[in-house]
Amino acid sequence: MRGTGELWSWDAVDIARAVRTRLISSREAVLACLGRIEEVNPRINAVVEMRAEEALDMADAADRAVCRGADIGPLLGVPVTIKINVDQALYATSNGVVAFKDRVASQDSPVVANLRKAGAVFIGRTNTPAFSHRWFTANDAHGETLNPRNERLTPGGSSGGAASAVAAGFGPLALGNDYGGSIRYPAYACGVLGLRPTIGRVPAFNATSVERPVTAHLMSVQGPLARTVRDLRVGLAAMAAADPRDPCWTPAPLDGPSLFRPIRVAMSVDPFGRGVHPSVEDSVRTAARCLTNAGYLVEEVQLPRISEAADLWTLLAMNDSRRALLPAVLAYGDAATQHVLQTMLHNTPQVDLDSYTEGLERRTTILREWLIFLERFPLALLPVSMEPPFEQHLDLQGAEVMGSIMKAQAPLLSLAVLGLPAISVPTSVRGGIPLGVQLVASRFREDICLDAAEVLEAQCPIPIAQL
């Protein structure tokens, strides 16, 4: 068993095993995490709603299940946080919006229901920007979340509260979601792991919300953030159970066929040919050396039509936002979210139905080329962002800066539009600045990403944030 040190610092696998074998109780694990939240959260504001007695009741129920010899889920007794834009029964799905503070869910979303069935104990709900529409986490409803590794830097967004909570030791596992980088970027900014599963892997549905636009069905996913790869594995397995409320859910196995070795890796340090920050380049090359040391065959190659894919995300997702999101943001959003969305839309040409439909058709063509490419190179290695984590509130500095941010985030957008699985893996924290890389595989081959992430985890260990 790996679990050493303070109980709040243990990973999910160790906690679950220790609860199952009665080495510790779930109550002890939950109390340790609640204590850590009480001590540190006032400084970083990652968890914005916590009902301690309810969490302890769930922990006690887990301990009774162990005593009865009942069927035990893989996360029995493990403290987990839930993002405030996901339905959790009897909690408000506020999505960081003041006007939605009373939008209380009557039922769990599919992913929350799956975590509950797996035995997870919900210890708190984590912050997000209003409407979950920034790579920075602040809103008028719950305030600003800080990065526990460096308060000058964004914790990322929109799952900034989730990543900040995991990095600070509030719980070993967090639920986030990713439409254009909202799991991977916060993981990058906070120096933790974040997995964006394949579209259709994890079921999603919020009864408190209207039906999502087309691009959300093609790009938006639910997924785990954690400090260890093995926690990502168990988190994904728990989250991915079937639910009839999501017609896009796909019954794909969690592990695919064995690959011919050595596994070829397509590395791209500067995939868009516009330049890359030296520290980001160094991170990618460091990861390449780690994979080479483990027997992977790393080759520097051009990734297929990746710039076009990033531009396609902007065309499709932002025009959906213009139609489906802008009216609500103008009516209920805070000033920062209104500014950011209007700035992004100002930089995005408005398209008609023919152009939108052509964009969807082009997406299929690009995805086909990627799937063929990933037959030759089962794994791709590239930056998460072309820049180190941004300073807080950088996106409020006008259209030109927003344009630079969008260019830097192109690696996140290009993979989201294609619906491919990708994982953000930390490689270092230098001078208080977290750095990492992105690993990508073919549809429903999260296992390939996770295997490679374990190599990087072993050679580039990242401690819990010291607070």
TrEMBL record:
InterPro entries the UniProt entry points to: Amidase (IPR000120), Amidase_CS (IPR020556), Amidase_dom (IPR023631), AS_sf (IPR036928)
Question: Which Gene3D superfamilies does this chain map to?
Answer: Amidase signature (AS) domain
The residue ranges of the Amidase domain are: 28-450
Give GO MF terms, alphabetically: catalytic activity
- TM region(s), chain numbering: none
Q: What does this protein's UniProt record list under function?
A: Hydrolyzes indole-3-acetamide (IAM) into indole-3-acetic acid (IAA).
Annotated family: Belongs to the amidase family.
What is the recorded name of this protein?
Answer: Indoleacetamide hydrolase
